[in-house]
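Quick one, tokens below:
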């Protein structure tokens, strides 16, 4: 299929491998942390041909330093994102437990969960209609909300 690029190392001096494989024309970045998986797959960018560098080593060193700094920033943002997702999941679990504790039938609990997890009432109505086949989502929302409000 041509997805992999094979690099053959003839009589390697330092490495134990004779072949190395990479994705052809692509870069993969793995920024995962714990149970949070963040992977970036991007096509190699076509850049203007680099002219003769005055000091190739200096240029490479500068790029490597820039990559390290960017990588650290990504890892920091990933830690923050992981914390935010953890807080979101905990709040979502508390919401679901509270709905489960209400004296509602299973259908009403599903409707309540949809109401309180969608961004807007219109969004909840659309979900109830599209994914659950609700013929009159606005009425269902009003009825379930009234029961939830009665519950205290």
């Amino acid at each position: 299929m041509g997805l992999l690029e094979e690099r053959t190392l003839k009589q390697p001096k330092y490495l134990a491998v004779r072949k190395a494989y990479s994705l052809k024309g692509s870069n993969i970045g793995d920024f995962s942390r714990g149970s949070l998986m963040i992977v970036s797959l991007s096509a190699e960018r076509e850049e203007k041909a680099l002219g003769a560098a005055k000091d190739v080593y200096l240029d490479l060193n500068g790029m490597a330093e820039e990559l390290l700094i960017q990588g650290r920033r990504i890892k920091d943002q990933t830690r923050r994102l992981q914390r935010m997702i953890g807080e979101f999941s905990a709040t979502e679990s508390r919401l679901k437990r509270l709905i489960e504790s209400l004296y509602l039938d299973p259908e009403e609990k599903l409707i309540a969960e949809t109401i309180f997890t969608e961004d807007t009432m219109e969004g909840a109505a659309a979900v109830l209609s599209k994914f659950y086949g609700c013929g009159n989502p606005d009425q269902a929302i009003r009825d379930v909300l009234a029961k939830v409000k009665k519950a205290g």
